[in-house]
Specification:
- The chain is built from 19 helices and 13 strands.
- By secondary structure, it is α/β, with parallel strands linked by helices.
- It folds into 2 domains: 191 residues, D-Maltodextrin-Binding Protein, domain 2 (3-Layer(aba) Sandwich); 199 residues, 3-Layer(aba) Sandwich (D-Maltodextrin-Binding Protein, domain 2).
- The protein has a 5-stranded mixed β-sheet, sandwiched between helices. The protein has a 4-stranded mixed β-sheet with strand order 8-9-7-10.
- Bound molecules: beta-D-glucopyranose.
- The site of beta-D-glucopyranose has 12 residues, from loops.
Amino acid sequence: MALGKSARLLATVAVCGLATGASAADVEVLHWWTAGGEAAALNVLKEDLAGQSVGWEDMPVAGGGGAAATTTLKARVAAGNPPTAAQLLGMSVREWAQEGSLGDITALADEGNWADVLPPAVVDFATYDGKWVAAPVNIHRPNWLWINAAIFEENGLTPPTTWEEFNTVAAALQEKGITPLAHGGQPWQDATVFDDVVLGLGGADFYRKAIIEADLDALGSDTMLQVFDQMRTLRGYVDDNFSGRDWNLATAMVLNGEAAMQLMGDWAKGEIIRADMVPGEDILCIPAPGTAGSYLFNTDFFAFFDVTGDMKAAQDAMANSVISPEFQHAFNKVKGSIPPRTDVDISDYDACALKAKEDIAEASANDALLGSLAHGHAQTSSVQRAIFDVVTEHFNSDMSSEDAVEELVLAVESASI
Ligand code: BGC
């Protein structure tokens, strides 16, 4: 991989105060990138750091969306033994910074002019109290619908652009004995679908009011009733074995033709690419029904804990690496996301990434670039958990939409106090 290694090595050496050839300390990195495509993307970083004599101690905690990783991280920090860096979503970066556990990488960020090359929404999550505490590696879009093109073609179906069209297409597939929707019944996956339905039925302003502002009137509205009605309809389009299934196994069902569609973020593309299929051709990518023009986003950050000495030098080397345009280009191509740096040329990326880049520009211009609730960019962890609980309970029972809306309002109200 051409990462301008000699220039970077010199920079590392300068930061570390080491003679060329000497090795810096290892970085110990806690993350939840354990699916095939995710691990391949992480390898890009491991190799880059190895080229700079920075060793890698891996601390993977399986579990999409990062809930299990958060629990492990809390235990490590409570024991006074934080990792050098941890993969975190935006709201958690903020919460860890508030706790006072994160270090300060402002000097590096200023030197590299990070603020000039990153979108304001990303800078906002990477900084706390005027200091840089984390480095962003990607921008993911959770509101995609992935479609097995061959199944649609064989059955004369058109990709659905509204929830009503989705229901028609799904009913037609079901009639032919094809599972319409690949889904993994884990709270964060239910919430990924819920985000899509709230945005698709309510629009950007409703999503902002209900989800980002946690406005109780919006949460208790008729629109939210319709959202739960649609969630109930979707429950009828998943197979019997959905419970507890990992997201990448649900993606595999679409790739191998066991199911026709999946509502999932573009990390699914990592799996598509690894299966030697072409995103945008074999597997179509369109915005989740009703969400064209809006862009839900989430960014993975490496947040840097407060460490000293050799560990700090290795940490700085890692921060410089992940923010470099060369790394961001190589990593995001494999990960399925787009680089957060606005100055990276992605004209050699796949069609879905090119569409993502176009769509994010359009959404930002129209005030429709919105943080994802399911993926930690909309709410505090306590409100997020409260919403997850209601959504998952509703999805896995015969709870009525009326009861779900009532519970949602109560849960968010008490979690917000
Ligand atoms: C992360 C992605 C990850 C996905 C599934 C999301 O919250 O942002 O990087 O691939 O979860 O694990």
